[in-house]
Automatic annotation (TrEMBL):
<dbReference type="InterPro" id="IPR010282">
    <property type="entry name" value="Uncharacterised_HutD/Ves"/>
</dbReference>
<dbReference type="InterPro" id="IPR014710">
    <property type="entry name" value="RmlC-like_jellyroll"/>
</dbReference>
<protein>
    <recommendedName>
        <fullName>HutD family protein</fullName>
    </recommendedName>
</protein>
<dbReference type="InterPro" id="IPR011051">
    <property type="entry name" value="RmlC_Cupin_sf"/>
</dbReference>
<dbReference type="Pfam" id="PF05962">
    <property type="entry name" value="HutD"/>
</dbReference>
């Protein structure tokens, strides 16, 4: 079965040890922080700790719960991650500091090794059937329910589709975060 329940994923320290994350999926299976091609996780942010650095990695982040935080990147850009489910992309090697807007948050993360993959984090909100093409690496149910060929996703569940999956169905009021990944031929 390719359904992953967030509650079954242990919380582990961030790469820099200053926060916690729950890894939903990593490719290839068994890869570590230095050799993954893509990785999806949910981070728990409860202090103004700086983000871990990931050289050569494109990162996508979306707020799941809480008031969020303001990210300040070392290139001078600032981004308020305060709107739930609205993805923001940034380079993994950027030095990122944060200022919490009020209390703990949870955020969804997609990381892609730039030399080996490209992709994006998108939201699906339209009720009914959604096409699962070959680029869909993972579907995360943020709210509502998603029906897959392997079973029903509840909030906090993720699903790893197979190439022959075809379609999933979203109930009214459902929001899914979708990690789209294209492996590069190197």
């Amino acid at each position: 079965m390719s359904i992953i329940r967030l509650r079954d994923c242990p919380a582990v320290p961030w790469k820099n040890g200053m926060g916690r994350t729950r890894e939903l999926a990593i490719h290839p299976a068994g890869a570590g922080m230095g050799d993954f091609i893509w990785r999806v996780s949910v981070a728990e942010v409860d202090s103004a700790a700086p983000f871990s650095s990931f050289e050569g990695v494109d990162r996508y982040i979306a707020l799941l719960e809480g008031a969020g935080f303001t990210m300040t990147l070392d290139d001078g850009r600032s981004h308020a991650l305060t709107e739930p489910f609205s993805p923001f992309a940034f380079p993994g090697e950027a030095k990122v500091t944060i200022a919490l807007q009020g209390g703990s948050t949870r955020d969804f993360n997609l990381m892609l090794r730039r030399s080996k993959a490209r992709g994006e984090l998108v939201t699906w909100e339209d009720p009914g059937r959604q096409v699962v093409d070959d680029a869909v690496a993972l579907i995360y149910c943020a709210r509502g329910h998603v029906d897959t060929s392997d079973g029903r996703l509840q909030p906090g569940d993720a699903w790893l589709p197979t190439p022959s999956t075809g379609r999933v169905a979203l109930d009214r009021g459902t929001l899914a975060l979708v990690a789209r990944v294209e492996l590069l031929g190197n």
